[in-house]
Amino acid sequence: MNGTAVAGGLELLLCCDVLVASEDAKLGDGHAKYGVVPAGGATVRLFRKLPVNRAMQLFFSASLYSARELSAWGLINEVVPAPQVLTRAKDIASQFCRQSPEVLARVKGLAHAYFNANGYDGFQAELEAFAEHVSGKDLAEGLAAFRDKRRPQY
What we know:
The structure is a single chain. This protein is mainly α. The protein has one domain (4-148): 2-enoyl-CoA Hydratase, Chain A, domain 1 (Alpha-Beta Complex), CATH 3.90.226.10. It contains 8 helices and 5 strands; from the N terminus they run E-H-E-E-H-H-E-H-E-H-H-H-H. Strands 1-3-4 form a 3-stranded mixed β-sheet. It is globular, with a radius of gyration of 17 Å.
């Protein structure tokens, strides 16, 4: 990961099993800043990857955090100089490719089974919350503020 990932960009990164980021990378969740309820799985995946208090801080603050800080939180596996990001990611992928594909698939399946063991479908709940929120005034104001490059007035 190089650059900045916010909201939907963060949601895409949360789908990754391993994250390597450049020293200058910044990540955050801007949904609350612009009045958007997450609908790409952030409320499920972030709580799986971070302690609740850290995930809430990311959601509630709408701030950008450095790759180093999020590495200390446990979200990012490695932070490397920007020119080395792709090389390091390829090295990690190469190491993984030398392992048993059947075992890796089973371990990933078991991890998903563990996180879904309580029967709660967080992804469905997130989409339902988004659908209920779509006609709200906060979303309209947030998107208008984003478009106009101004601070939202809630």
